[in-house]
Amino acid sequence: MKNVTDSFVSLAHWPSAGSFGFNTDILATNPINLSVVLGVLIFFGKGVLSDLLDNRKERILNTIRNSEELRGGAIEQLEKARARLRKVEMEADQFRVNGYSEIEQEKLNLINSTSKILEQLENYKNETIHFEQQRTINQVRQRVFQQALQGALGTLNSSLNNELHLRTISANIGLFGVMKEITD
């Protein structure tokens, strides 16, 4: 203890213009200075430090609560997003299935309508061919008839004499008269 008091007393007796030096007596200087500084800090800084730590603790707890609330909200939003995703995927699958079935139905409808159109075209073609055949046959008949008529008229004119001619005309007039009586 004497060393401790000696170090305080020696502080008062320092020469003002002396040399500068270090006190290497650790036991005499450092523990006392540290204990005084720590005592003052604890006594005066206890309330301030306690308030600072309490404020810091409150801020940390508020931050944790906010983080938990945000986490809960994020989890809720994630679940909603997952539910929407599942719903959209189901709708997409439904559209895909319906789309494929609609495509197949449209394909069948197109095939059926095309086959009906082809059948109609085939019928029109056959009707046109038949019409053209009939027209051609009629034209050939007319030509044959005209040629036969011209040939018959030529033969009749060359082989008919006046008397045969008059008999043929009278027979035809008689036929017309009988036909007229039948129709009346």
What would your notes on this structure say?
The structure is a single chain. This protein has helices spanning 2-12, 26-159, 162-183. The relative contact order is 0.02. The protein has three helices and no strands. The protein has a domain at 34-145. It is mainly α and 184 residues long. The chain is rod-shaped. Helix content is 91%, strand content 0%.
Ordered list of secondary-structure elements with their pairings:
Blueprint: H1 2-12, H2 26-159, H3 162-183
Order of helices and strands, N to C? Answer: HHH
The whole-angstrom Rg is 66 Å
What is the 3D shape? rod-shaped
Helical residues, percent: over 70%
The stretches of 5 or more residues where confidence is low (pLDDT under 50) are: 7-15
- Please work out how many helical segments DSSP would assign: 3
Structural class: mainly alpha
Question: How far from one another are the termini?
Answer: 175 Å
- Estimate what percentage of residues fall within beta strands: under 5%
What does the main sheet amount to?
Answer: none
DSSP, total strands = 0
Mean pLDDT: 81
GO molecular function, one term: proton-transporting ATP synthase activity, rotational mechanism
Pfam family, one: ATP-synt_B
InterPro entries: ATP_synth_b/b'su_bac/chlpt
Keywords: ATP synthesis, CF(0), Chloroplast, Coiled coil, Hydrogen ion transport, Ion transport, Membrane, Plastid, Thylakoid, Transmembrane, Transmembrane helix, Transport
Provide tags for this entry:
184 residues, 3 helices, mainly alpha
